[in-house]
Amino acid sequence: MFVGISCGGEWWGLDAYRRVEELGFDGLFTGEHLMFHRPTWDAVTMCAAMAAVTESIAIGPAATIAPLRHPTLLAKEFTGVDLISNGRLILCLGVGGDYPKEFEATDIPLERKGRRTQESLEILKKYFTGERFSYEGEIFELDDVWLEPTPAQVGGPPLWLAGRQEPTQRRAARLADGWLPYMYTPKSVKRTFDFIREDAASVGRELPADYAWGVYTTIALGEDSDEAQKRADEHLAWRYNEPRFVGDLAGRYNVAGDVDACVEGLMEFRDAGTTHVVLAPVAAEGQTVMEMIDEVGTGLIPALRKATGES
Q1: Backbone φ, ψ for residue 263 (5° rounding)
Q2: Residue pLDDT, tens place only, 180-216
Q3: Distance (Å) of CA 271 to CA 152, 186, 190, 262, 295
Q4: Of 224, 227, 236, 268, which residue is 20 to 30 A from 115 by alpha carbon distance?
Q5: Counted domains in the chain
Q6: What is the CATH number of the domain that holds 47?
Q7: How far, in Å, CA of 64 to CA of 243, rounded?
Q8: Beta-bridge partners for 217
């Protein structure tokens, strides 16, 4: 199982990003918002920094909000990241919309976010070939355009889609190289995997053997399971500005407890068909970022590798 870790759009520092690689994580990711109720970095800047100080680990956004950037700019910026990383970029795109102010601030119609994402995916694939092309969509029209330099990865980096809704799942089935849902349980993750397979088959697409069946989940390590669970719920309530995470949604969308409990929770995702997991860790009170990373990397990851038979 591919195991990544996300800083969630927060600046952990270059030493922390180096340490993530040293500890044997498979991927290093960041979220992003242009405007939000808490400080966040943009994904391009963060990914460039991550790429510059690491050598072998996959890096990428989880996710970048696709409709907030013109696809030409999206292709150009993340091609640069792929080149800096020497071909280690995973480009995960999200539709966004949970914070309308950032759409307003960039003069992007919120109601067209899905269509913009659809066309951006189609255009990115064309740019990444390195060939000249024209494109005529409902939103974007491009005449005789091209991308130079092209990405380090031939044909471009893997394109994952992140989200929750059925239209995004359909795009993942028809256009993407991976699916990374969030706020999902193992049972609901499996349901989306089945839907994507069925929808891909309905349009005659054979999904690649290395298609990424992913999940993004919050994780809180702690010997006191009640405290860890409470910490995870409170973090989600703060992160997404949603009080329900400490109400009727408490305990539903995170993995919390000691190492054994967290391994058990992650194995439930694996048993549901998950091949790629991105962890969003929550620090204990008084714990530094580096201490949190070390706790996950030296405690949880080896135990998870053993449970999956990869150690």
Answers
A1: -60, -45
A2: 999 999 999 999 999 999 999 999 999 999 999 999 9
A3: 34, 8, 9, 14, 24
A4: 236
A5: 1
A6: 3.20.20.30
A7: 24
A8: 279
pLDDT, tens only, 260-286: 999 999 999 999 999 999 999 999 999
Indicate if the alpha-carbon torsion angle 105, 11, 37, 89 is positive or negative: positive
The 3 state secondary structure assigned to the chain is: CEEEEECCCCCCCHHHHHHHHHCCCCEEEECCCCCCCCCCCCHHHHHHHHHHHCCCCEEEECCEEHHHCCHHHHHHHHHHHHHHCCCCECEEEECCCCCHHHHHHCCCCHHHHHHHHHHHHHHHHHHHCCCCEEEECCCCEEEEECCCCCCCCCCCCCEEEEECCHHHHHHHHHCCCEEEEECCCHHHHHHHHHHHHHHHHHCCCCCCCCCEEEEEEEEEECCCHHHHHHHHHHHHHHHCCCHHHHCCCCCCCEEEECHHHHHHHHHHHHHCCCCEEEEEECCCCCCCHHHHHHHHHHHHHHHHHHHCCCC
* Of 99, 26, 12, residue with least CA distance to 60: 26
65 pairs with which residues across the strands? Answer: 94
Question: Domain range for residue 41?
Answer: 2-307
DSSP β-bridge partners for residue 94: 65, 162
